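Hi R.,

As promised, here are both runs. First protein below:
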Amino acid sequence: MRRQLTIAIEGCCHGQLDDIYRHLQQQQQRLNKTVDLLIICGDFQAVRNVTDLETMSCPNKYKQVGGFYRYYTGERKAPIPTVFVGGNHEASNHMRELYYGGWVAPNIYYMGGSGVVKFGGLRIGGITGIFKDFDYAKGYYETPPFRGPGRASMHHVRSYEAFKMLQIRKPLDIVVSHDWPQYIERYGNTDELLRKKPFFEAEVSRGDLGSPVNALLLERLRPAWWFSAHMHVRFQAEVGPHESIFNEGWNGITPYSTQGGENMRRPASVADKPIAAAANQDEIVMSAISDDDEDNTTTCEPPSRPRLALNLPPPKHSAAEEPSAESVVSEITKVEPDMAPKQVDMTAAETDTRPNGDSSLEQEVSETADPKVPGRPTRFLALDKCLPRRQFLEIIDIEVPDDTLGEHPQLEYDAEWLAILRLCHPHMPLSELPFSPPAEAQLSEAASGIPLLPEAMLTRELDWVHSNVFSGGDRMFIPPNFMPMAPTPPPGTPDSASFGLAGHDTGMWNRGRGRGRGNGRGRGRGGYAQAGQHSDVEWVGPRPYVIYPNPQTDELCKLLGIEDKLTQRRH
């Protein structure tokens, strides 16, 4: 027996929770569906107060408190269970308090620096941040008050997170990231992408659009679905079960580096992979989207290879025929026939690669264990930011085993991920020195040469988790143990309040960071929410602390028998 879960995916949030939930409720009414889970792909901006706003890495003129604080205080409650990963514009101090994941508000769950959770039978993985080569190999050296370059580097993904994700050996159904996997544009309609975002052309030509870390994870993990945002455009692609996103294997790419990311170079063979130009005949053609708020002037260097022949299709709408907001919202909830989730067996019941439920706890963990499900492609979907006439929301149905749902699905801990946290925790890097995998990790020929910790070590930790966390049972629900810790503005404070920051842009928010690989080039205004009118509201009372050690983190660390090395570190 199979049942369907209805999942909503949202691109960049930028603090617009009220608008997102309003649009989602409208779509539920229009489609006569009940959405079980909302997934947000970054730039969530869980801002509680003026200190959170100061810590967020973006020019001050774009800083507004937004409406999240009302969900934090309980004035409003998320109507749908919501999970999210972090992007590159977050209240990074707040995210650091919940490094291992946790509730930022009732019914809204942050997946941590990286993580895996379960929901109604689905295994959902996530990784926070964007790739920057100059920070990738470093440890978590940033300490309060998070000033200067450390404020920006907090949202740069680290090799330690990639290493943890690469230890996953059981299939994932969904992976969520903010940045796209590198090369993914070559598995979809690239001409259509470049018609909407022509200033991506140089990066597409060079083959360095997106994150090489996410490409590495996609190649290893091969989930049924991969959801992203960041580029502020809707784009879909599919990597076939027998295709390699690197075309001819890893070619020296590693999940860590001793040279600040120098090993994260593209394989020469990728340059020879043809750009996908022909549209899928089964694809629903989406309306042109206005990018009037984007800066279309690229700052990229000239391409190192000859200009691609792009053969761009003509726009579907002329300037006088821009689609209405209503028409776009109606279209974005459709699922293309070739991507219809009901045709995808998310549980792979016909294979022996994925066990039902959590019985995986009792199965042997092998070095050759592969999270790929034979014959299953990875479907990629990226969405825009929450603005009028943008394709920022999509609803899909996914089939799951009938006995895993229950009447009301809840978020659950994933046993394998908890075992990986315990296994990797002693090696967590806390300085700017490059992270090196533990000596026990061996480059596995069976797993494309990535470093895997030995079978016996992971099996031991799985047994420990099964006995001490799951208490011999098959499931462990994440407790609803949210507790507000930080002060918030008084009720009635407008979303546009900047607490005086908008008029004090020092320009220091990103100095000294260089133009390293993965610098978000060509995004247009760096992907920030549009600068608008700011309310002249000052913060009243003492300045909040930068870090509030969170009881959720304390409880999880005690549950796993590990030390909270980050939020307890005050200097």
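And here is the second one, sequence first, then its structure tokens:
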Amino acid sequence: MFITGYSVAAGATGRLLFGYDSFGNVCGKKNSPVEGAPLSGQDMTLKKHVFFMNSCNLEVKDGRLVSTALCVSSCPEEQLNTLEEVQLFAKNSGSFLCVYSLNSTNYTQNPHADSLCPRLPVPPSKSFPLFNRCIPQTPECYSLFASVLVNDVDTLHRILSGIMSGRDTILGLCILSLALSLAVMFTFRVITTLLVHTFIALVILGLLFVCGVLWWLYYDYTNDLSIALDTERENMTCLLGFAVVSTVLTAFLLILIFVLRKRMKLATELFRVTNKAISSCPFLLVQPLWTFTILLFFWVLWVAVLLSLGTAGVSQVIEGGQVEYQPLSGIWYMWWYHLIGLIWTSEFILACQQMTIAGAIVTSYFNRNENDPPDGPILSSLSILFCYHQGTVVKGSFLIAVVRIPRTVLMYIYNTLKDQQWRAWSRCMFRCCSCCFCCLDKGLRHLNQNAYTTTAINGTDFCTSAKDALKLLSKNSSHFTSVNCFGDFIIFLGKVLVVCFTVFGGLMAFNYHRAFQVWTIPLLLVAFFAYLVAHSFLSVFETVLDSLFLCFAVDLETNDGSSEKPYFMDQEFLSFVKKINKLNNARAQREESLRNEEGTELQPIVR
């Protein structure tokens, strides 16, 4: 809340959204005067475009742009060769290209017009969404303009401008990820053996297709690269990173799919049991919609605060009555704090969904009378969560955030120092640390889910529930560990499918304005959001699966199947568990026989 209030008070998102001139005026709005700047505080409601008076030869001094910028109502679309033509353009279009203090009737008479008006000839230009700037259209001016202006903009502002200029694309891709998640969830709901094979084939094709597109785009960048543009170089470098990571991930997943191909029929039965549990609480499938809505609202708020923080600065009057904005001290620390808030709050929202689903499944599972199902298990689970177990969810999500923060810091340090000469052991150390944190993150997520289910069963706190869940799982791991992992793997492939097709759409859309957008950060943002959306929808099946098996472990621990202590599980679930045990016993016997055969000596043949 402090960061939000500070960003609203100190930030100026309008400067980023609409652009601003050299005198402290934001284009397209009415401005307040800046003390010491006589040309500030003007009404620029009708002047929505930023025009540089020397666009073909922009000047940079001490790391800042010193060329004069003005707010104009329209960009000159034809070349203006004389001051008379500049004056005629102002008369016809109402767009004044000289400094505000010079009246348009004096353009040709004022002896200082050469310094107060744009350098001649004025090249034709068009407005571009990046800060609403007038971009020169002649090849020689375009190259000089882009090489100075785009590279001069701070990296942070280039990233923010990429997000803002591609905001419609980002929103469309988020809607695409929502539609894909709903389609995959429906597929899991009516899954059959044929659908499993079709689904696996789509995942393989999607992975291979995205890899091919990434390598093709990287090849296209290497053959058509404007060396003067930092955005081109950054996009090309990130494309190479995306291509390498996606290739390694694709190879790893293809190997896993090949190894686990014989368990496809078991996956069909597993999802049939899961769907039967969901049928007892059909509104569980609607739960992700609420999660998605809350996540979307939080992300919009987070990005709005991010933009405000990025424009937080103090106005300072310099020579000539011009105004520049100095970044506030300590703003980068607020960025990191804001990033921690993103991770922790997102994990908290997802953890609330997991806790709600686990509570509903527990209520339905431990119900003896099948003809009298519990009333409103989801609402009951929500009320218990908000009244008694918010601390449990906060602790679980905090653990995930604590693990993710060092991973983020390591990646930031690695990317910052990657251009320097590193020793092999240093690179290996960073990669090993990142891998360890990734494994710890996966383990904690699984532990949290089981802790939430145990809390729903026993009503205990987070630490006690986590300890009890570990004991139960260690005692009964032989029953369901392998099949549970395989079910989670199939669900993970569903998330990969959603991210693959969303990233492909983003690659095609963002690549259109490659020269003026650092679109790798927006693409990462879209990929992360797509994974969150897919996770919030498909984790329903994952949470139900984990909750069912933990309920089964508790059922085995407290009951023996006799008439005095009958099991809570139904016959279909019991037969499924027996089939798993039979497969596990057969595998164990084969391994034992193989070990015995390896230790047997060959006897001579007696004739």
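A quick note on the second one: Residues 150-154 have pLDDT under 50 and may be disordered. Let me know what you think.

Best,
J.
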